[in-house]
Design goal:
Length: about 120
């Protein structure tokens, strides 16, 4: 969780750059947009004023989207826009995978994989 928080500025840059790339699958762009809207919205499943637990839904959503991006979108595309090192991206991928383990792989594949 700490590595995800420390990498937040780099993640914002990555998501912004990826969202404008025409190669990124449409489902991934929709997932990115939906996640950004939810994270910026003042309405949450768990209110943010509850200490620690209030940010749990935000962290889990961010981890699911990040896991989908880092594990289903073409790595070379993600690395093109990642401002850090490939090793730091791998560390984030592992952390996001651990937090998003409850989401079925088929669902992530359906959202983030390109359609023929």
């Amino acid at each position: 969780m700490k590595s995800l928080l420390r990498a937040l500025p780099d993640l914002v840059r990555l998501i912004t750059r990826l969202a404008t790339d025409p190669v990124l699958p449409r489902g991934a762009k929709i997932a990115l947009a939906a996640a950004v809207v939810y994270l910026l919205s003042p309405i949450d499943l768990i209110p943010d004023f509850i200490p620690f637990v209030g940010y749990l839904d935000d962290a889990l959503l961010a981890a699911v989207v990040l896991d989908g991006l880092l594990n289903w979108v073409d790595r070379s595309l993600v690395l093109r826009y990642w401002p850090g090192s490939p090793a730091s991206l791998d560390t984030l991928a592992r952390a996001a995978r651990l937090l998003a383990i409850w989401v079925p792989r088929r669902l992530k594949a359906r959202i983030f994989s390109p359609r023929p």
